[in-house]
Specification:
ten-stranded antiparallel beta sheet, five-stranded antiparallel beta sheet, 37% strand, Immunoglobulin-like, 2 domains, 2% helix
């Protein structure tokens, strides 16, 4: 698991950074002071697992999905807990049935007192996926909301909750670190991540003080936009970007608010009509083919292509540039290749490791390998402070339930030359890099 800091967290158990860290203690206090009291505090309770965590709220446009079977009850509840002065819009809660029809639209505004709810209940007519969205007015899709909400999204069967049916691909949380509980204080946020290849990770963020923080996950995290391969280190600029900010293709992984249910289907159709993967047994990747296409006959420059099965992420490309049949000599080249949809390619310039053109009489060999699998980058943006660290556990696959290592490399973000916020980084774990063996995350690290 790779961990990015922005503290931007990302995870095959390795840590990287998109260098958007903000937040001295003074900065946190300034934002928290914008809270505007509007009546008394309401803290809704629920018997189901899919709810906002204590002191963790929402106010930003985002979408949840839930799977319900025929005859099961879909239940949602968004409750206004307070209002802030630094928001720009009032969201509408929109619930959409599997067939694309809108089941409910409910807006919460400044005129609604604390405790006001957008509640919805309906029995599902058939099996399928529903969407539950916080929607901003047109033209304000990136704006922050004024109304701060707690949420409950649940599926019931005969009155009994069916946990593990609710997921998202982007979760935006709002919290108030300097306010007293239950309204504010540090948040312990637990999410379960499901990859397209069937691997499940349980991730605990302990003592989160993020104010407005965003959570996503994929197989790349921060990448080199030219190759779409992962940086595998904290960026501090240097031309690297979070993959969602590039033109690189990638697959967003799914985040659940309870352990994914065992009875989820392998593929589902969303209310938009788009199909997506959901739950499959873990699979092992295989390398099916490697090819090299020369730019011209006899040229040593060209395009290296690879085909994988059951794999998405970064692969290593080794070039035997001196024809000795080995890949570890001083003239050999190593680069990276992004694999999406089972395919990847990288341009090779025909030079050896010291920059000399490889003679056309020298045989050249290429080797492609994936140095790990089930690699997940937990990209947590604008988390400010993670007081007690992150704890990660892979629940299936090799070392079933016992793999807890994470990896990071913060070398670049500790240099003021690379990063003007170098002294504000939030890691409390001493090593700048985890090393190739990783670090056990049990109990919370980094």
């Amino acid at each position: 698991m790779l961990v990015h800091r922005n503290c931007l967290l990302s995870g095959k158990e390795r840590r990287e950074d998109d260098d958007e860290i903000e937040g001295s203690r003074e900065g946190i206090a300034a934002v928290a002071a914008l809270l505007m009291a509007v009546g008394g505090l309401v803290v809704p309770t629920s018997a189901s697992a899919e709810t906002s965590p204590p002191a963790g709220h929402v106010r930003t446009p985002q979408t949840w999905y839930l799977y319900a079977g025929a005859g099961e009850t879909v239940s949602t509840d968004f409750t206004k807990v307070f209002q802030v002065l630094n928001g720009q819009m009032d969201p509408t809660v929109v619930i959409t049935r599997p067939d694309g029809s809108v089941a409910s639209e409910c807006a919460l505004t400044a005129a609604d007192p604390v405790g006001s709810q957008c509640a919805f209940t309906e029995v599902a007519a058939g099996d399928g996926v529903w969407s539950v969205a916080l929607v901003a007015p047109e033209g304000q899709e990136t704006a922050q909301g004024r109304q701060v909400l707690d949420w409950d999204i649940s599926v019931y069967d005969g009155g009994e909750p069916r946990p593990g049916r609710v997921w998202t691909e982007r979760y935006a949380q709002y919290d108030l670190p300097l306010q007293p509980a239950p309204l504010g204080g540090p948040v312990d946020l637990t999410l379960w991540y499901l990859t397209e290849q069937g691997y499940i990770y349980e991730v605990d963020r302990l003592g989160m003080q993020g104010i407005d923080s965003i959570y996503t996950a994929d197989a790349f995290g921060v990448v080199d936009p030219a190759t779409c391969a992962s940086a595998h280190s904290s960026t501090a600029g240097r031309g690297y970007q979070k993959i969602s900010n590039t033109t690189c293709r990638y697959t967003p992984f799914k985040m659940f608010f309870a352990a994914p249910a065992d009875d989820l289907p392998a593929q589902v159709t969303l209310p938009t009509g788009e199909t997506t993967w959901l739950s499959t047994p873990p699979v092992t990747p295989t390398l099916d083919a490697v090819t090299f296409t020369q730019d011209t006959v006899g040229s040593r420059s060209g395009t290296i292509e690879a085909v994988f099965s059951n794999f998405e992420g970064s692969a290593l490309v080794h070039v035997d540039a001196d024809g000795d049949g080995a890949f570890d000599g001083p003239n050999e080249r190593t680069t990276t290749m992004g694999i999406v949809g089972g395919e990847g390619s990288v341009v090779f310039d025909g030079l050896d490791a010291v920059g000399n053109p490889i003679p056309y009489t020298t045989p050249v060999a290429f080797r492609v390998s994936a140095d790990g699998f089930a690699e997940v980058h937990f990209s947590d943006q604008d988390t400010e402070v993670l007081g007690n660290g992150i704890q990660v556990r892979r629940l299936n696959g090799p070392a079933d339930g016992t793999e807890t290592r994470i990896f990071w490399d913060d070398t670049h973000v500790t240099s003021a030359m690379n990063d003007p916020q170098a002294d504000l980084k939030c890691s409390a774990t001493a090593p700048l890099a985890s090393g190739v063996a990783g670090v056990d995350s049990a109990g919370g690290v980094h």
